């Protein structure tokens, strides 16, 4: 059977199962078990004939969700948040993992453009960062205080302002995806070019090491989250441009629901970045170097594991549970 016909034949049933999972349709335990068995048969068929298809990934994700609904003990409301971050989001990230790769590739490309532009055009940094900021930072560098700009204002006031600004930037990266992903790429271009020019600026003035000790304390969480938010925008755009066998509206609904959940997963990292920038970065050059490195590489290990490694772990574990149930 051709995959297109297989999807067309079963699409309404799968959408119905989604509504059951979301609680829009109520089913008794026997009916749920029947739906699950039926879905497992579809998954087995897809794994046999379309092993590398998105349909197989989708059915596996759907099976995992209904498996949790039937066979796991009922989660109390406060545990719903744990399930969201521990299982639901990682499975979605695994399903859309290629978009994360695309987002990182664009990020690297755009950041490189920022670096090259700063190298070949000495006025570029002033245009991108603003003359007042550049002049202030040059003075700070002369006084061996490359991160002096982060020492102004109160800690709590700076933290709140930074958090809201970063969430706003992330929301734009995501929501602009509604323009077929083009808006997301433009927003990512703007932020990445700025980052590239910003880092080259410190290199040009011999302060790259000191700036890195401060900037990347909060920058790991902030920039990584920015790339994941761009990933969400690309998912949203792709759901509109490439509906496949779904109607464009249904494809958009699914794309929005999935991408919004992934976007929400970045909020804790964005908040942590704001707290670190408001409270810790201002002390970066006074801290022992090993402490800077622990925070920077510890942050990278945490967020890198969650978005690159853990989704595969959850997928394999869930897939094993499903296969054990089939057997």
TrEMBL record:
It comes from the Bacteria. The keyword Oxidoreductase does not apply. Pfam families: SpoIIM. InterPro entries: SpoIIM-like (IPR002798). The keyword Membrane applies. Keywords: Membrane, Transmembrane, Transmembrane helix. The chain crosses the membrane at residues 99-120, 173-203, 215-242, 262-280, 289-309. This is Membrane protein SpoIIM required for sporulation. It comes from Chryseobacterium sediminis.
